[in-house]
Amino acid sequence: MAEGNGMSDRPRDYLIRPRDARAATSRCADILHAVAHERGCSVAAIKGLRRTSALIAARREVVRRSTLADVSAARIGRVLDRDHTTILYHQSVLGLR
Q1: Alpha helices in 1-97 (DSSP H)
Q2: Which long-range contacts (CB under 8 A, 24 or more apart) does 68-76 make?
Q3: What is residue 10's DSSP assignment?
Q4: What is the pLDDT along the chain (97 residues), one digit of tens a residue?
């Protein structure tokens, strides 16, 4: 810590820049739209509350592709309207964690 100012001397390159965050959200949204198109369902259905096996498989595919694209669980959760712990669960089921 720097003397008296309460600020850390740690470099700030570990922080996500807003542009990078927007890019990650955009990547995840693009993946969501691609999976919806491939699976023949709507984006709203994938983001919705229904838990049919087809929709769960589509959500897991979005999680798999987004994780491989280095999108954080929190950001994937925001795009899918899910809590990040749900995304962590899907990642563990898929063997990505």
Answers
A1: 18-39, 43-47, 53-68, 73-80, 84-93
A2: 68/96, 69/27, 69/28, 69/31, 70/24, 71/24, 71/27, 71/28, 72/24, 75/21, 75/24, 75/25, 75/28, 76/28
A3: S
A4: 455 555 555 555 555 555 678 888 899 999 999 999 999 999 999 999 999 999 999 999 999 999 999 999 999 999 999 999 999 999 999 999 8
Which residue type occupies 72? S
Answer positive or negative: Cα dihedral of 44, 25, 31, 82: negative
Q: Which domains does the chain have, with CATH numbers?
A: 19-93 (1.10.1750.10)
pTM for this predicted structure: 0.80
